[in-house]
Protein 1
Amino acid sequence: MIRNYLKIAWRSLSRSKIYSLINITGLTVGIACCVLIVLYVKDELSYDHYHKNYHEIYRVLQAFRNPAGQKDTPAPAPSEYQVWGCAPVGPALKADFPEITKMTQFTSPVTLLMEYRDKRFQESNMMFADSATFDIFSWKLLAGNKETALKNPYSIVLTKSIAEKYFGNANPVGEVFKAEGSTLMVSGVMEDVPANSHFTFSALISMSTFRKIRPEIFGWWGYVDFYTYFTVPEHTNIAAMQAKVPAFLKRYNPGGTTDTYTIAFEPLKNAYLHSEAMRQPGPTGSLANVYIFSLVAAFILFIAGINFINLTTARSMERAKEIGVRKAVGAYQQGLIFQYLTEAVVIAALATILGFALVLLLLPLVRELSGKQLPYSQLLNWKMGLMLVLMPFLVGLPAGIYPAWVLARFKPALVLKGKFESSRGGIQLRKGLVVFQFSLSIALIACTAIVFSQLDHLRSQNLGFRQDQMLIIDYGGDETVNKSMDMVKATLANNPAVQKITASRAVPGDFLPNAGTSIASRSGEMIQFDPGIYEVDFDFFSTYEMKMVAGRAYSRDFPADTGSTMVINEAAVKQYGYANPEEIIGKKFEQWGRNGTIVGVVKDFNYQSLHKKVEPLTLRMAPYDTKNKISLRIKSDHLSKTIAELEHTWAVMEPQRPFRYNFLDQAFNDQYQQDVRFGKIFAAFGSLTIFIACLGLFGLATYSTEKRLKEIGIRKVLGASVTNIVGLLSGDFIKLVLIAIVIATPLGWWGMHRWLEGFAYRVNIHWWTFGMAGLAAVMIALLTVGFLALKAAMMNPVRSLKSE
């Protein structure tokens, strides 16, 4: 019987080629989209899972606060913690908490000039790390001994890609690098850190090296430059560990209180998608985006299934006589249901095979859109094989169960007498499903428009500083460059394309530290907070065209500016309790061993991503040895020539340092790559959702038009115009789309309102966005249905009436 069912299913598909093609195409696109989104979501959920003891790894979050005279300071909110913290907390935890089996620490990334024989590169994203690192994290060593690789001072473990850059395929263990005046010996080579890691690096230098360079900071509880991780046995009571923190801090940090400094423990599994802490060691993902794409995948597959249900039930009249005959000769209802479910599974099986083939074609494009690796090997594992086998049943059975049930319940006596008609309930169901499809489609159109409007808003927002035509030379804080900075700036400024030039420790968009800063209040009391800090030179404000709202910028006319004055931003003015920026001018400050007075307030500028509000910032004159970057505002004419000239000048002037540059606007916009990718992917899958919905609408309109050909012929004979007939045939479907607009508007508004909450600076959601989306849906429906309606209206009525 199964063989017979398959044969009948194939004949039914062959007999109704157009409807079969629509069903298979819709399901193919739906399955392909679903698989691609599953790959994307699976990658997002896989971060750090490759570590063998993934569930046993935790990291230390640290909160530095000023209770500002509060008697009962509430516990820090999750967003008040930061991953970046002090060094002594790690060894102290290991000594006092017997639950901790292993502990390791990393520093924030550093940039070093690495020299090996005739090869010289400025390497960024290098970290110092403890010797226990390879006991905690499952990074495979390709050469060297993991027990000793990070034990000795001045040893370095290279990632595979960095090792190949210098040594090719040779084993570099034992080879020696020159690095910023030091000598580093290669003690190991490890595999490149997988892309699905919450932080990555290009090389690890032993922490004992850092202890040799700056031993004093390993005892400072207020100095932050470390990320601390530890392992505990599985099923350890972390809440009980957390309860011991106040007593622990009282023992080890007697000068502070839990109101000013406290710690918390966060599992590694929360690091990428669930952490709200600041100062992350790498990019974080968006759990909201994972939910959104998962819903889109479900919606796409559901819409494809709706098309199948609609077309199958709409064409039930064509199968009615077949069913009547089968029942008359003894067919059971269960057998008929099984037969039509078999047809649904056959269609879903064909769509699944074609869908996976489409995935293979589209995967490179999805890689480019998402910025993820998504290797083909993900499609060749047993889970995908099982999905390939089960997909026809998971899609075909739910989509086919209702049509099979409807078809199997036909009464043979009525059918064979020609008195059978489609039920009113079936017609209403099909209309309801069309409304559902277009509600989703309209919501997706509106949401896509809002996403791109927000992205455009980010790009066009006035950041409070000049970012275009700004060339940044990253020289890694080279001591030789810093000692001759005045000469370097003067030489580069001689190029006629250079309009302004400045040197600083960081530029907008960079990672920057916080500094314990005390400023006098109105009553003269010194109040301490920890605002961010920029270290700049005299030309920083004029080069970046920043505006002063009170006081003045740094000037060579004031010798005291080099060490005893400071400029702050408006957000810092408010943090220290002043409503008017003018009031803070002349107030005393203390910061990092420097004392003096506030001489200026700069207008707030967005030195971080627009996901965040402008935070308090201090800008002080940099000592000669802390600057890392040179910013040049250049003319936009003949950029290639200008860059070549600057590179030549640099090579003559500072031959020991490679000429590494980027443009500030490009670097700053890199912060929004995840948002841009989200917009592109959302638009792509939203468009495919609309395409599938239109396929279903086209199929229904085709069937509806075919069933009304005689009615159309009679109307034409009686004088109906083409416009009247097109309006008649299109009107019913347009009404459904209008109802869909009413349903889609609150749904889309709610979804986008939640998404926009992730931006401190965001666009407003306007009603006309949904109006335009609805108009677009109406136009799409008109194009889909109108073509068929126009074709039917222009048909010669003789052809449809000749059988009467």
Protein 2
Amino acid sequence: MSAEAAPGVHNEIRDGVFLNTVVQGRHVNLRLPREIDRALSGLPPCSSTFTGRDAELATLLAGLAPGAAGQSPRVQVVAGLAGIGKTELAVQTAHAALREESWFPGGALFVDLLGYDPDHRLSPDHALDGWLRALGIPAEHIPPGVQDRSRLFRSALAALARAGRPVLLVIDNAAGYDQVRPLLPGDGVTAALVTSRDGLAVDARLHDLTALGPRASVDLLDHALREARGGGDTRVSDAPEDAATVVRLCAGLPLALRIAGALLADSPGRPLSSLARALEADHTRLRRLHYEDFAVRAAFDLSYRRLDATHARLFRLLSLNPGPDLATEAAAALAGVDDVEAEELLCDLSRAHLVEQAGGWGRWRMHDLVRLYAGEQGNLPAHAAADHRDTAQDRLHEHFTATLRAANTHLAALLDPPSPRFADLAAALAWLDAERPNLIALVTAAPPLGRPRATTSLALNLSHFLSRRRHLDDLLDVTAAALRTFRERGDHAGEAGALNNLGVTLRKKRRFEEAIDAHTRVVALRRRLGDRSGEAVALVNLGVALRDVRRFEQSIDVQTRAAAIFAELHDRHGEAKALNNLSLALREARRFEEAIEVLSRIGTVFRDLHDLESQASLLNNLGAAHTAVHRFEEAIAAHDRAAATYAELHDRHREAMTLATLSEALVKVGKLEEAIDLLTWAGTVFRDLHDPHSQASTLNNLGIALRKARRFDEAIAAHTRAAATYAELHDHHRRGGALNNLGLAQSRAGRFDEALDSLSRAATIFRELDDRHNEARALANRAQAAERGQAPPD
């Protein structure tokens, strides 16, 4: 049976029943007009401000290209956060695909399913009705049910494909598989491009869209202004710092950037600094990112309202973590659930693109604007009470505090056995590395996130790790936060502990006079408290700082006093640490044999107490002392053992320091290439750890080894860089040493005038520092250079 067909359309129905305009059939064959008006594709226009998505566009096009079916699914799904630019990317891709004449000669069909708007969501049967009409099917021949419409639509697509006129389907804003499934082709030839805020469970290639980078964000803002106001609007290029602030506060979200551009375009006299100030406050940013019908908060609302109560609660609680991301176990602590349940909830939120994976599996983060939105929702009175936010915050602090203590048992010298929470030291360090930003943020957070006791506990327990990894700025921040808290609480013992850590940090930052002042105050405070052990610890640290400013005799006196107090207290470990530091001061004072004798006295203490870190330090100091008295083989053996121990402890910084010191003995015994290799590696470590002072010392030693190897030009370059770095760091004594070595290399290279100048400057520096020994060496080297160059010495 056949129906009266519209001109150019032939329907042939077999093995079925025709009931008025309802088609129920097993096979539906359509013969469609030869040409379909491409205007019926209805693709939205491309935005002229599209930027930053070249790689994503190319990937999507590759998946849509004819012949790609054997390599990837013909359905491509772009998923991502609300406002991330999914629709624009899909439209741009569709237009680019249509420009390839042989790809989709049948045109493109576009539909916005409005899947996240419950009041206007488009059902699949309505979408199919519109598409069938666009294909030329008269209304009276379109069946009413979604299943039959889908069959008819797929048959039409297959017919077009067989006729050499395949169509591209663009399905925007799909909320779920049920909404999009009836619209998908079934012929294996027709391609579809779908956008969704959720990862759809369809036979498709999934593409997760992330935020724009800073440069692309600035470009988008600039293009938006120039498009709206003409090429003469140069506000973005005229104020790059303000533009960077605006895009940072928009966090790479294209919707937010376009709103910012529209707000600026509305007021051509408004500088970017004005908008930057308006967006700076967290509590009003989402309200200000609004322009006419476009609003970031409204876009997030549509995703949030789809969550059930359990997912919505976790979503709100995640905003309580002040760091950039968090682990599954931390999220479990926040929610008060086990790790398995937390992981399931986070996976669901990730599929909804309200959270995303951060690095490896098991870590999660929120887009900055989503975090603000989650915090807004969580702080609404009804939610704050129901979620028990204060209790959740306490659970998070407790989780971090307990786990940090467990990690510290693997770092600390004398705690035995270590906590079973971590398999070994490497696992403990891996956790600390991953959680460092969260721990720092918790310590330094302002109320109400801050908890005084948690602040101080975390700060003190973090100090060893931060010092080992040389996160010195972080260490300064957390120590200052703890110090403020102790003083506010009137806790003098706690204040002394924090002040001691502050002094150690200042010394490592090479702020020596401030460090000496801090440690001097700690000594006095510990003495007032009657804390003899704490006083001795403070004296040890004071002695180290005094040695750094070359006040060697004072350092020797202070370390001797510290060792005596520890001996009175029968504290072998404390006494040995004081004597180990005493040996360094003795060596710097050129009392080498005394230094070796002191180290020999404590040689077994650290080993007996299983303090590997201090044992390695002692061996390194012993090696340096042996080198000074020309016992090179003993020095090499000691340094080798120290370096191996530091490697076992995963302490790259001190391993590099040890190997750099070892190189001095290797040079003395003629193992130049081995020394050069070690110094090159050590210099790379110091560069990676942002320690320019140690890097300069390594360059200086490298220059010596290169000069001995007769690689004079390389030696000159190394010493020149070392001297320049020492000058920047205001280390005048070591700059004098680098200039002395530079002069020697220049002399060996036959560059005598340069050598005389370098050696003269070295001698002047040592004279000003009252270092007669090194001044004499520089002058002697200058005389030799003058003789070699046949120039009269001074």
Protein 3
Amino acid sequence: MSLGSVRLKKAGVCSAALFATTMFTTVAYAQAQAPQSSTALEEVVVTAQKRSENLQDVPVSIQALGGEKLEQLQVSAFVDYVKYLPSVSFTTSGPGFGQVYMRGVASGGDGNHSGSLPSVGVYLDEQPVTTIQGALDIHVYDVARVEALAGPQGTLYGASSQAGTLRIITNKPTTAGFSAGVDVEANKVDHGGTGHTVEGFVNVPLSDKIAVRLVGWDVRDAGYIDNVAGTRTYDRGDSDPTNDYTINNQARVRKNYNRVYTQGGRAALRIEVNDNWVITPTVMGQVQKSGGLFAFDPKVGDLKVTHFYPESAKDKWVQAAMTIEGQIANLDVTYAGSYLKRNDVTNSDYTDYSYFYDQVGYGFYWTDNAGNLVNPSQYIQGQDHYRKESHEIRIASPQDQKLRFVVGGFYQKQKHEIFQNYKIDGLGSDLSVPGYVGTVWLTKQNRVDRDKAVFGQAEYDITDKLMLTAGLRFFKAHNTLVGFYGYGAGYGSTGEKACFKPAVVPGSPCTNLDKGVKESGNVPKVTLTYKFDGSKLIYATYSKGFRPGGINRRSTLPPYQADYLKNYEAGWKTTWLNNSFRWNGAVFMEDWKNFQFSILGANGLTEIKNANQARIKGVESDITWVPVHGFTINASAAYTDAKLTANYCGFTDADGNPVTTCASPQAPDGTVLPVTPKYKANLTARYEFSLADWDAFAQGSVVGQSGNWTDLRIVERNIIGRQKGYTTADFSSGIDKDGLSISIYLKNAFDKRASLNRYAECAESVCGTQYYIVPNQPRTIGVRLGKTF
């Protein structure tokens, strides 16, 4: 049967059923032709502990998706691979603006430019790429593997790895020989448009000591949210309807509103200086342009919204990195350094804020210089400029010794230039922020986060079967925030009226914020590992993770303190049935002390307070089984029970410590933490077989999770509502021969509408009845053609 005979008309349940039936009929027909040979699993190599090791020998809860697996699952972006990592959860408002969480360590409300640092570190090869508002949305192509390290990784990975670490490991240049590949794809999204992908790589040895690897991609993702026609009326509040003001969005009506264009590339060089030293410089960059909104308004309709002002984002970044590896005596020496430059330009509709504050009596009063009322609708123009440099040097002893160690030093500096311009067209200059006519509110600030550390980890073989691992990281953190935020002098008592010195940040009218906080501490790790034999081990771990404190820009609030996570974990790594069945897992309990909690306070201003205590208990497990040659089953799941262990009252004492005794807590003891579902699981079955003289495959995947809340506070979560659980299914089939491959896939085959996030544009008590749902991508069918050389 040729793949060209699989013709799926307009997607529906029937088309999904037809796809699955055709695929598995092909499998049944081909089973008799499948050769019978070894069912042994391949070794998975990871570098989670800063050196190459077999996954099964590392006493850490790790899930690794290799390059081949990523291709099989049609992974091209963060949202594609994270659904196969049960310990990972996330919220998102669109490409490039996702917040990552692990093991239930989430309080909701993160991601603000002057808020808490992320609790999960994201690495590109050896370098951290976690910016203050979140990680880079890196296109996944020519990637060796993705590693998810669950639990605190503070000893080896530092501050933003409080709850875990995600690592994207790219394929490196090699002098072994020439290789190249190109892949093209066309796809169609139900209820939306069409998209395409063009990707390619080439590896060229320039000599027996030097090689270069070049990678590039051009991707268009189809839109599926429609901005439909509508109006909105601002009520002056008097009996004369002629004073009311009605706006419409005729100029902004669009179908498939949220298209995305992504272009990028990577260039890496391998220089073998001599037998002992290798230098690998790399430059990688990406430009991602998106239009529209990635959420819909359920009151307007499925995958529909009514918005009135431009909505777009441009995320542009480039990272230059260098790794130097070598030996001094019998010690391995590694230096890894990088410099990241990221610029974001965003436009956002903010009419919900204007409208709902008007409804409660605060909104319809803005005038021009002649005193005439103007359209009070607001929109936001934002620019974020990130600069991040990191340097790490470490020394590792030989791995074949009874005592092995890794020691090193780390330095990181992140700078974030923040510009948020809240505009009202026609606003008088006397009410505007000086230098910005039409600006009702301006945020113009510079934030700098510095992190210094020394670390070490040692392993000692007590016996042939028993191993002790101990690690410690000493750190110093320094966070500063300076600049301007608020109104002009023509309105309110904050903003320009609160300035206490001339402008420090260029482009700001004056300075009303200049604060800093310094902290230091240490995080330990101790693990005891027992190996029954070469294929089975168990381990027990105590580890601690941290996240630095920072500045509240509202002057009446104290700085927020560092929060710590204590982790108690027991795990197993086992293989069975002549290495055809692999079963790994861990049980854990984590205590989260004085955790940082972000909310929208007065005037939509983010406030960060140390909330109180939480306890998280859970189990995570994954299996891989090859029952017969060519047939592979992968399954993984996580159960997470995350709850407060003290009341959240919503305020702190004078020293910034959380108050937990109050008459009416905003979230009482026992409240479930937001974002993370209690259950999350996935199952993939793949069969590879011979079809004539072609190699063929058929694959099906099912991913599901239970429901979850998006807010910690009881009143606010009930306004926004609970996100329902969901289950989705993907199918794919294909053939390849002599480096030529053809495949077809069907993602979200039954067009299930999952909720990835629910939010309101301002405080839930004001705007919460107007909430938005960020859905998963509707059913998508695609055809992919590839060729390797």
